[in-house]
Structures are given as structure tokens and as C-alpha cells.
From TrEMBL:
Organism listed in the record: Roseibium algicola
SUPFAM superfamilies for this protein: ClpP/crotonase
Coiled-coil portions: none
Alphabetical list of InterPro entries matching this protein: ClpP/crotonase-like_dom_sf, SH3-like_bac-type
UniProt entry keywords in alphabetical sequence: Signal
Name this polypeptide is given: SH3b domain-containing protein
Repressor recorded as keyword: no
Length: 480
């Protein structure tokens, strides 16, 4: 089936004669923008800027990638130390894109690397050959020890697809042979990414599903981008650390499970995808605040298990922000059997600070991915297994209850999504409400729902959180 897909999906991707050739220029004006970018998900850096010190030269690669562009890039980089590369390209020559990516990968993997980051920024695109060049800028060392430098800003367009053979050349034997060789080269590049742990196997499967010049598997700096091993970033409110205000353990557990599902460094079977939620008995997560449980257990760090495969550690800092980390293995502080409490205190002392949870992860758990109400979903399980039972299955799922939700705790309805806004009503525990929109805003609540009857409530006060599904696509995030 793979060979069949390759043979019928071969390509040069673009008719580059109508597009401008790639330009490689120095762009010091981008320094303030890069300096403001912060990681969106725990485990991909700290809460600070992804670029600690902008010491070096910023280069922009724009336009169509053509044969000879690697030599142009080498010449441009020559004599500089400390490099930041921003991509904005519709693609072009797959082979040249792969060569550029391999050159960047060699720099990253060398004993004295000076490539500090590759970026695709909101408002820019990096498609086809460009996407491979960008994705190759990592080594297995990054996959094992961290330190990924492939930064995808929320709203940017990173697009993958396979090579294809233009119809006008379908009957030309030489063209078919050349295109097949190209397709093998492209597929081999994806396989190398998978073999090195730089990208999951689902990336190749998704790319194989897009077989024409204008069809792409898009990543846009959301949680699916994180699951592909990249580092989503933003300078906006979506990157703000969440606050402990009205943060209950049902919300915390949902964020842990979303992060666990998306973390491709944790080896999971379909069992863990299906039953990987936080497990244990008590206390009631809808009635227990994080800060109260932290105080009760006597440690600023607590942890809970994901079906014995991994555990989620949560930290409450003095400034009210929350840190989180997913770690492979059994829960180190567990005491007792299946009836043991869900959360246990991690023993100190602690010499580090956990990566901060941001509004991005809270929004994912609230099905407000990227600040947009999610209308089409896919199970995380589909990233590892598809059951072919001879029936046509939908490519995307719709909301299970047409966005009707249950109120978990009494809360005021506000005229606008802010605690400073006028209270225009109140809903009580057990009430059913219909959600019509959502928004990520600055402030202690972070994510808000708009009710179909008017007014807004904090998303932290509903009882249903998203743990086992993800957005069917990140394409809706592009340009936001």
C-alpha cells in the first residue's frame, strides 16, 4: 500500500517558474519579535523566552527553494557565529530542501553548534520542501535530552505532503523514473526522522494522505505540533502562565492527561491512550482545589499516575503559577494499592522549577484550542492505530453533546470575559448550559466560555474536560 501511494503521488510539488527564487537576507529587525516568544507546553523549555540571549545573526530564507540554495545559505552564514534562521517559503525543490535540512542538522549535532533556532512565524508559511528543511534541524540527542530549537509560532503554517507526478508527464518514462527516485528520497527522509525519534511515525502517514500540489497536512503551533516533537511558541496571551485561582483538580487532571497523550517521548499503546487518565481514589477532583491539596500533602510538588506508564508532577509556585512535567515510569511517591489516594507528595528538596503550564494547555483541556471553540475532533488513539473493519469511518468527530456542558461549581455569569466585568447572572452546580464560543484572555482565569443565552463564564467551572481527543486539524489556527 505504501509503494502504491508513492507511485501515484510523486511530485516536483511546485511550478517554480512563476514564483520568485529563494532569498537569504539578514533581518536584525526581527530580534524583538523572537525575544518575546515563549513556549506553550511544559517540557519544551521554561516559562521565559525561548531565546535567552539574542546573540548572533538572524537570517530569513524566503521564496522558492531551488537547486544551489544550500550554497547560497552557506555563503550567507559564513563568518557569523550564533545563527537564527526564519523560514518563509512555499517550498520548491524537495532535494535541495532536504540538503538544507541535513546541513542544519549537522550544525545542531556537532560538538560546537551555533544554530540557536529555526523559526516559522505567524503570518509566514513553510511548506513542502521548506517543511522538511525545518523539521530536519534536530538530532536524536534533542529527542532524548530535550533542547529542541524548532520553534513554530501559533498561527504559522507548516505544511507537509508527498511528492507527486504532474499529469502532463504521466506517460513520460524518464519523468516517471525521476519522480519515483524523488519520492523514495522524500520517504527515506521521513523514515530517518522517525528512526531518530525526531518525529513520530504518524507524520509520514499524514504526509502520504496529501498527494497534490495544493494539499497539505498543516501544523500551526498547537498541541498537535507539540505531539510531532516541535516546540510551539507565542508572544501572546496564549503563552501566559496559568494562575491557581479557582483551579480544581479535575482541571489539573485534564491538563495532565492532554499533555500525557501528546508527549511522544512516552511510549504508549492504544491501552494507555484509552485508559491513560489520572487514576486513583480520592479526593473528589471537582471539590478539591490545587492549593488546598498542596497544603494538605505538605509539599509544593504532588504527582499522580497515568495507568502506571508515566506520572504527572504538578508544582505550585509562590507567585501562584503552576508547573507541570510528564515523566515515564511508575509513580515514585505512591503508597498503597488501587485504593490509594490519587495524588501523593513528591519528596524534596527541589533544586529546579518545573516548566510552566500556560493558557494553551488549559485551552486544550477546555476544547478551546488556540482560542477557537473546537468543532471537529479526533481521538489521540488514532495516532498509533486505525481499526479497519471494512466500514467507512468519519475523519473527524463532532462534539459529543452539541456543546452542552454541566456546571461543576457555582459561578457568576459576566457581561464580558473578565472578572472585572459586570455580573449579569449566576449558574449553579448541576445546571446545563450551551456553549457558543470561547476566548483566551489575560487574567487569572485565562479561558472563558460564552453562553448561548449571553454572558461569559470561566471554563474552569464546567465539569466536562477534554482528555482523550485532539483537534482534527490545526488549520483553523493559521493566521490567528
Amino acid at each position: 500500500m505504501l509503494l502504491k501511494s508513492i507511485v501515484f503521488c510523486l511530485s516536483l510539488v511546485f511550478s517554480v517558474s512563476q514564483l520568485s527564487a529563494a532569498e537569504i537576507t539578514q533581518r536584525p529587525d526581527l530580534a524583538p519579535r523572537l525575544a518575546q516568544l515563549k513556549p506553550l507546553y511544559p517540557g519544551k523549555g521554561s516559562a521565559g523566552s525561548v531565546v535567552n540571549e539574542l546573540q548572533g545573526t538572524i537570517f530569513l530564507i524566503s521564496g522558492v527553494i531551488e537547486k544551489g540554495d544550500l550554497e547560497k545559505l552557506k555563503a550567507a552564514l559564513d563568518g557569523t557565529w550564533g545563527k537564527f534562521i526564519v523560514f518563509d517559503s512555499p517550498g520548491g525543490s524537495f532535494l535541495e530542501g532536504i540538503r538544507i535540512g541535513q546541513y542544519l542538522q549537522y550544525n545542531v549535532g556537532s560538538q560546537d553548534p551555533d544554530l540557536n533556532g529555526v523559526f516559522v512565524l505567524n503570518g509566514n508559511e513553510c511548506l513542502s520542501a521548506c517543511a522538511l528543511a525545518f523539521t530536519l534541524a534536530a538530532t536524536p540527542r534533542n529527542a532524548v535530552y530535550g533542547g529542541d530549537i524548532r520553534f513554530l509560532e501559533a498561527g504559522a503554517a507548516l505544511g507537509y505532503h508527498m511528492a507527486f507526478l504532474p499529469e502532463e508527464k504521466a506517460n513520460q518514462l524518464v519523468a516517471v523514473k525521476e519522480a519515483m527516485n524523488l519520492a523514495y528520497e522524500v520517504t527515506q527522509t521521513y523514515v530517518k526522522l522517525i528512526k531518530g525519534g525526531i518525529a513520530p511515525s504518524i507524520l509520514l502517514q499524514e504526509a502520504l494522505s496529501h498527494r497534490t500540489a495544493d494539499s497539505f497536512f498543516y501544523l500551526a503551533g498547537g498541541i498537535r505540533s507539540y505531539a510531532m516533537g516541535l516546540t510551539p511558541v507565542s508572544a501572546g496571551t496564549i503563552a501566559d502562565p496559568i494562575n491557581k485561582s479557582a483551579l480544581y483538580m479535575d482541571t489539573v487532571g485534564a491538563m495532565c492527561t492532554q499533555l500525557f497523550q501528546a508527549d511522544n517521548s512516552i511510549r504508549k499503546s492504544e491501552v494507555e491512550y484509552e485508559f491513560g487518565a489520572i487514576d486513583g481514589s480520592g479526593p473528589n477532583p471537582q471539590e478539591t482545589k490545587l492549593e488546598d491539596l498542596i497544603q494538605e500533602l505538605g509539599s509544593r510538588r504532588i504527582a499522580a499516575s497515568h495507568n502506571g506508564v508515566a506520572y504527572c508532577t504538578v508544582e505550585l509556585s509562590e507567585d501562584g503559577t503552576v508547573g507541570m512535567r510528564i515523566t515515564s515510569g511508575s509513580l515514585p511517591c505512591a503508597k498503597g494499592g488501587y485504593d490509594a489516594p490519587t495524588w501523593c507528595a513528591m519528596p524534596g528538596p527541589f533544586d529546579d522549577t518545573l516548566p510552566k503550564v500556560t493558557n494553551a494547555l488549559l485551552a486544550d483541556a477546555a476544547s478551546c484550542h488556540g482560542g477557537t471553540l473546537t468543532t471537529e475532533y479526533a481521538y489521540w488513539t488514532s495516532d498509533v492505530i486505525d481499526y479497519d473493519i471494512g466500514e467507512e469511518t468519519p475523519t473527524a468527530l463532532t462534539d459529543w453533546n452539541s456543546w452542552e456542558r454541566t456546571i461543576a461549581r457555582d459561578v457568576n455569569v459576566r457581561q464580558n470575559p473578565s472578572l472585572d466585568a459586570e455580573a449579569v447572572g449566576r449558574v449553579q452546580i448541576g445546571d446545563k448550559v450551551k456553549i457558543s464560543d470561547c476566548r483566551i484572555v489575560s487574567g487569572p482565569q485565562g479561558v472563558w466560555y460564552q453562553l448561548s443565552t449571553g454572558g461569559w463564564i470561566s471554563a474552569r467551572f464546567v465539569s466536562e474536560f477534554d482528555q482523550f481527543t485532539r483537534p482534527a486539524t490545526e488549520e483553523t489556527m493559521i493566521g490567528r
